[in-house]
Amino acid sequence: MSYRFEGKVRYSEIGEDKCLTLPAILDYFQDCCTFQSEEIGQGMLAVEERKRAWVLASWQVVIDRYPMLGEKITALTKPYAFKGFTGMRNFVLEGENGERLAYANSRWININTNTGLPARLTEEDCRGYVLEEPLEMEQVSRKIQLPEEMTDQEPFTVQKHNLDTHHHVNNCQYIRIAADYLPEDFKIHQMRAEYKKQAVLGDVFYPRVHTEPGKVVVALETKEGESYAVVEFQAK
Predict the structure, then answer these.
(1) Cα 199 vs. chain centroid, distance in angstroms?
(2) Which among 164, 183, 184, 205 would be 20 to 30 A from 78, CA to CA?
């Protein structure tokens, strides 16, 4: 059975249109898998003791409808594959009547926190997780091809509020930052994100943006052009 938890769209989670924002949807998904891990004994403290951590490598998220303030919602998640040092997991956000509002595919890397390098999964790393069939959805490459023409934006420095418990920029923060470059009337239907390098306090992002009808690509890079993350937004 998929792991799930129920919620209600809060004022603190909505945007100017009174609907749940994309970053808030991602927060529900991340909370859902975190709650599952805690309940089966694979929570933060247990994983930290083994000097391990799960780091998100890529997202593919599709939003069919953004729920409004006060709507009851349910977040679901299910892991469906473990291979090498990689874990694969699906997510679904449902409305009160079972309507599928949003769904996602994600790829996670198990790392050794002493070295910062990927660590091959052991039986202990996978204990308690029940693998299920993957969600039926369009399969796209986790790698995002950068357009040839991109426009440089003003660089800015990573602040404390961007960090998570691993002392790195939280993966949802990259999405929030990238979404600031969207046109005002851009309604996100699909988002893909590829994470390449972990950013820490004091690092400087050099954004580059490509905009075309129905599509925006944002690359957050170092001054030398090394990529921290690439985010692609598509409208309906």
Answers:
(1) 15
(2) 164
